[in-house]
């Protein structure tokens, strides 16, 4: 163990906290080193560079969010599962805006395949089983839900819904109602 009790886990967690405070894009090894009052070189035994640090923060955020979403949907089905899952994403984005951004950080295919992102997709597909969607429509629905959950949370966190009525909470409830209706009435696969 190096100076200041540094571990890779502590460095990544500090990077995640920094991301929530100043934005994920602003996270660098030098900024994290300042947090620990150490030289940048002290962190290089824990992370290779800022890209590696950001990748590790992304993996941390994906894992944290997957745990939260799994707890939220446990024992639920249908619309109840959809709403609980969606609220887990939205709440995470509100509480941890930098980490929520990190969860969308591009990962190489090998890293992505070994990440908690796979758990997110499995949970989404489990929720969609309650709507009786088969492939390839299920994949389209997974992408739609991810886009809505991440997009709404990003816009809301940036203040995009704060300048007009109705309030964001009312819109969120209506969006989830609309998604439930859409998923129950998914359009038939077009024939070529």
Key features of this structure:
about 0% strand; mainly alpha; about 65% helix; single chain; 9 helices; about 190 residues; Tetracycline Repressor, domain 2; globular
Order of helices and strands: HHHHHHHHH
Radius of gyration (Å): 19 Å
Into how many domains do the coordinates divide?
A: 1
Task: Count all strands and give the number.
Answer: 0
Q: Summarize the amount of helix as a percent range.
A: 55-70%
What is the rounded distance between the termini? Answer: 61 Å
CATH homologous superfamily label: Tetracycline Repressor, domain 2
Average of the residue pLDDT scores? 94
- The CATH class designation is Mainly Alpha
Query: Which structural class is indicated by helix and strand composition?
Result: mainly alpha
